[in-house]
Design a protein that fits this description.
It is built from 16 helices and 10 strands. By secondary structure, the protein is an alpha/beta fold. The strands form 2 sheets. The protein has a 5-stranded mixed beta sheet with strand order 1-10-9-7-8, sandwiched between helices. A 5-stranded parallel beta sheet has the order 3-2-4-5-6, sandwiched between helices. It starts with a strand and ends in a 5-residue tail after the last helix. Bound molecules: 5-phosphoarabinonic acid. 5-phosphoarabinonic acid binds next to loops.
Length: about 425
């Protein structure tokens, strides 16, 4: 169960004042008539996804789980953040499992790259290389290195069985390579961009290998898809959130800070930063998406949030039931003075930290706060939540008259880098 409390951010009449605009944009999203409409495949994907491919993913993932120590997931941006954030959100940061998932190819760091390759030397590992274009430099270099290591370890024939490629259906270097080598292939649909791809094989395969029930995850998204088709702002929590963001932007806020009190949710904030940043940050417009993990960052950023330049509002991912918990024990000497918390759980303390901070930020700091209350982190709730954000992002960008599905600004640094690297044609 997920609900959104907007009472610390906006008045009901201000939400409802958006109804006409929201009706029009919702129709544009459903009829696929807005700018970037050839990238709206994600909207009805939770209903229309290819059932055979997902069954195959579950089957292959099960084999990989059984036969290998590590799945190396190679990808960057939209080809990486969804799977990583979903796995961490659902499993936590430290857990015992039959297989370890390592993310690779999301950096040019020699240190990280070398250390991962060294770690893999004595592990039985499989590779899921993910790239829609099939030409992204970070993931291409990483794949070249990992493939060479795997082939050296187990030979070309065995390596072929351990490599799964997720890429475009028709074009790209990775498609060519995987066709030539006979790797298992999954398709990243043409009409779904990277940051909207978590419900496709891009997210589903690594999640399934991690032991996550991807069918339940898709079910959650399907529930959200159905609910958010009705644009009524009295009911539609997704669009209520989207218009609140727009209202904030039009009332002098320039930063949306995603806040979580659970470190294993902080990758969801990273996914959100890409989703909203890359979708909205165009034409010199858009909220800057930032993130913080409390209470950790209350000891660093807390002062600014409370008393600094009033440029931000908070969107809090409030997980009400933790994945697991621990009680604070009794201590006879009580030198640390903590016996008043004896028998209380960490979740109890975390909840009081959340409530105390919310009151301080809203009532004394005048910081608008949106609370997204998530009863617990399970597959269905996560599917619902991620779909909610994707649809809210499309609505928010269209409210700013921005195409949510392109990223023209990302190409410029690449051109400079290729020029400096001496790539032909740059
Ligand atoms: O959202 C996006 O489109 C980007 O973040 C891409 O996913 C990212 O650049 C990786 O691209 P590719 O999948 O082509 O390797």
């Amino acid at each position: 169960m997920i609900n959104i409390d907007l009472s610390n951010a906006i008045k009901e009449k201000d939400i409802l004042s958006y109804q006409k605009k929201v009706n029009l944009i919702n129709k544009m999203i459903i009829d696929k008539t807005g700018e970037g409409n050839d990238f709206l495949g994600w909207v009805d994907w939770p209903t229309n996804y290819p059932k055979d491919e997902v069954s195959n993913i579950v089957r292959v993932a099960h084999k990989i789980r059984k036969n290998y120590d590590v799945l190396l997931v190679i990808g960057i941006g939209g080809s990486y953040l969804g799977a990583r954030s979903a796995i961490e959100a659902l499993k936590g940061l430290r857990y015992k499992d039959d297989i370890e998932i390592i993310f690779f190819g999301q950096t040019f760091s020699g240190t990280y790259t070398k250390q991962v390759l060294d770690y893999l030397k004595d592990k039985r590992f499989a590779i899921n290389v993910i790239s829609k274009s099939g030409t992204t430099t970070e993931s291409s270099i990483a794949f070249r290195l990992a493939k060479a290591l795997l082939e050296k370890k187990v030979g070309k024939k065995e390596a072929r069985k351990a490599i799964i490629a997720t890429t475009d259906i028709e074009k790209g270097a990775l498609l060519q390579l995987s066709t030539n080598e006979g790797y298992i292939k999954y398709v990243l649909p043409r009409d779904i961009g990277g940051r909207y791809s978590v419900f496709t094989p891009v997210g589903l395969f690594p999640m399934a290998v991690a032991g996550i029930d991807v069918l339940k995850f898709l079910e959650g998204a399907k529930k959200a898809q159905k609910e958010f088709a009705n644009p009524d702002l009295k009911k539609n929590i997704c669009y209520r959130y989207a218009v609140t963001r727009d209202f904030m932007y039009n009332h002098k806020k320039s930063v949306e800070m995603y806040v979580t009190y659970e470190p294993h949710m902080s990758q969801i904030s990273e996914w959100l930063k890409q989703l909203f940043g890359e979708s909205e940050g165009k034409n010199k417009l858009g909220l800057f998406p930032a993130s913080a993990t409390f209470s950790t960052d209350l000891h660093s950023l807390g002062q600014f949030v409370q008393d600094g330049t009033p440029l931000l509002f908070e969107t809090i991912l409030n997980v009400q039931k933790p994945l697991c918990d621990v009680k604070i024990p009794h201590d006879d000497k009580n030198l640390d003075g903590l016996n008043y918390l004896e028998g209380k759980t960490m979740a109890y303390v975390n909840d009081k930290a959340y409530k105390g901070t919310l009151s301080a930020h809203v009532n004394e700091g005048n910081v608008p706060c949106i609370s997204i209350n998530i009863s617990e982190m399970n597959e269905a709730n996560l599917g619902y939540l991620l779909y909610l954000f994707m649809r809210a992002c499309a609505m928010s960008a269209y409210l700013l008259n921005i195409n949510p599905f392109n990223q023209p600004g990302v190409e410029i640094y690449k051109k400079n880098m290729f020029h400096l690297l001496g790539k032909k044609g740059y």
